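Sample entry (126 residues):
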Amino acid sequence: MLGQYLPLLLQVIIVLGFAGTAIILSMVLGKRAHRSAMKDSAYECGALPIGSGAPKFNVHYYLIAMLFVIFDLEVVFLYPWSVMYKEMIGEHSIALWSMLGFLGLLTCAYIYAFKKGGLNPNAGAE
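Predicted structure, serialized as tokens:
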């Protein structure tokens, strides 16, 4: 039983040995950098870093992006699904009804998001 895990154990030992050797060699043979406040400051295309790094976005933009990804991905996968199960849909109606149920649930989610104002681009404007 233990013999089955021997190749895996050997590979882990080789990987850890290589990583450890690479780190130790870089510390021994590498050049030491001279640190200063100027070298440690952030570099932004020659401009001095002023203000916060990232602008603040309204949460509504993220909500619209998530809804787009959810609904877009579901629609993108409908075509491959229909191609794969084309013959099965003709023979057995369960595949068609299961997809229609899924589309019904997706439509209910879309209507819910629309009524809650999740798709209104001006809902979160200040």
